[in-house]
Amino acid sequence: SVDCSFSRGVCDWKQDADDDFDWNPADRERGDGYYMAVPAFVGHKKDMGRLKLLLTDLKPKSSYCLIFSYRIAGEKVGKLRVFLANKKTAPVWEESKGKDEKWRTGKIEIFQGAETTNSVTFESERGKGKTGEIGVDNVILISGLCPED
């Protein structure tokens, strides 16, 4: 497995230069490193911020599972979407409201067919809320299918 978490991960993360705002590091409550977040007061409604994970060395014709923690805290704070590079049009994962402020786990299966996926993009779209944040943390890539819960 490959640890792509932000504090000590080995992965290549890039801010998108063509979006409306950047994701920023935020300290974890327990002081153990940091996660990436978009606070609710950044930007205007419908603005987008994209954080891209560059994937190299993925073997063709194999399966991977991308597992990540996410938090959508606050009223109408916005949407979090995940896109795979070879399927730019539609998100492979999307969430728009948290039932509470808790961290949850997202999983995405990445199949390397004839076309390989060379990046994963986490996109935050601003809502109308003014408090809270959208956060992403503990991004891990493992070989094989996603485990059942």
Automatic annotation (TrEMBL):
Coiled coil: none annotated. It comes from the Eukaryota. It holds the Pfam family MAM. Residues 2-148 form the MAM domain. GO terms for cellular component: membrane. This is EGFL6 protein. It comes from Malurus elegans.
